[in-house]
């Protein structure tokens, strides 16, 4: 995560907010970024494989 992402997230928050709301938003962004990076590296699972894992 970059400082720019944090600054942009902070800029979209209301003037007053619980710090947990900012932390939650930053964690969400981090998880999305990690998921996109995994996808780009080909570290994905097919829907069929997910279904098989859920049946176990």
Report on this model:
By secondary structure, this protein is mainly α. The chain has one domain (3-55). It has helices at 3-12, 19-40, 47-55. The longest helix has 22 residues, at 19-40. The termini are far apart.
Offer a few descriptive terms:
single chain; 56 residues; mainly alpha; 3 helices; 0% strand; elongated
Gist?
With about 55 residues, the protein is mainly α. Helices cover about 75% and strands about 0% of the residues. The protein is built from 3 helices and no strands.
Broad structural category:
mainly alpha
Given the C-alpha coordinates, what overall shape results?
elongated
Helix-strand sequence: HHH
What is the total number of structural domains? 1
Proportion of strand residues? under 5%
Query: What's the number of helices?
Result: 3
- Rg, please? 16 Å
Mean pLDDT: 95
Query: Distance between termini?
Result: 35 Å
Q: Give helix % range.
A: over 70%
Low-pLDDT runs of 5+ residues are: none
Please give the largest β-sheet: none
Counting DSSP E segments of at least 2 residues, the number of strands comes to 0
């Amino acid at each position: 995560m970059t400082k720019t992402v944090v600054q942009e997230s902070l800029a979209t928050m209301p003037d007053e907010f619980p710090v947990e709301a900012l932390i939650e938003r930053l964690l969400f962004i981090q998880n999305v970024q990690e998921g996109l990076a995994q996808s780009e590296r080909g570290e994905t699972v097919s829907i069929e494989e997910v279904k098989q894992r859920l049946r176990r």
